[in-house]
Amino acid sequence: MTRFVLPVVLLLLVAGGLTAALSQRPWSPRRDVVQPIAFSHRIHAGERHIPCEYCHEYARRSPTAGVPPVGRCVGCHEQMNEHGALPAVTQPWTDHRQPAFEIAWNRVYTLPDFVRFAHRPHVLAGVRCQECHGPVETMDRVEPVRDIDMGFCIGCHTARGVSKDCSLCHY
Questions:
Q1: Pick from 154, 171, 170: nearest CA to 162
Q2: What is the rounded CA–CA span in Å between residue 171 and residue 74?
Q3: Average pLDDT over residues 83-99
Q4: β-pair partners for 26
Q5: CA-only gyration radius of the chain, Å
Q6: Are 68 and 122 in contact (CB under 8 A)?
Q7: Is 79 helix (H, G, I), strand (E, B) or coil?
């Protein structure tokens, strides 16, 4: 019996390793993402010093950071337009390819289905957005600066003395 089990287990391990090494990883950060609107984090978060959580308001209280509602954009741009500083935001209403009053942003980071990640505990622990997402406030177009994978997360948890219990992050 052991004669059959050991070769089968070794074969499965080798096949699994080769599959993982040679397959595409749909959760890898995408550097080719094009957004529906040319939004500049450099201007908003960098030059204007708008805090990340002003727009990504759900980061402190839910699993996802979320994207700002169009009303938040319009509120600032409408107010600033009165002074001639910035043009009003109008594309979401005139672009018929998108749902009305909604900007269909494209994801830059995606995690595998078996990973449970929540921004909330990280924000509450004082982890700055830039520690994972890089210097977003210097980017016109957000591009990933690092792979957010298990090694990256374990390294951070180890450095901060945080639990590395598998069930904390995996389903």
A1: 154
A2: 39
A3: 51
A4: none
A5: 21
A6: no
A7: helix
Contact 135, 52 (CB under 8 A): no
Name the β-bridge partners of 170. 115
Per-residue pLDDT reduced to its tens digit, 145-160: 888 888 999 999 999 9
What is the rounded CA–CA span in Å between residue 27 and residue 149? 9
In 3D space, the residue among 138, 144, 166, 117 whose CA is nearest the CA of residue 46 turns out to be: 138
Residue 109: Cβ within 10 Å count: 16
pLDDT at 90 over 70: no
Across the range 50-79, mean pLDDT stands at 83
3-state DSSP call for residue 170? strand
Which among 112, 153, 139, 149 is positioned nearest to 33, based on CA atoms?
139
Distance CA 35, CA 37 (A): 5
| Statement: the pTM of the whole predicted model exceeds 0.90 | no
> 15, 7 in Cβ contact below 8 A?
no
CA atoms within 13 A on the CB side of 96: 0
Cβ(77)–Cβ(88) under 8 Å?
yes
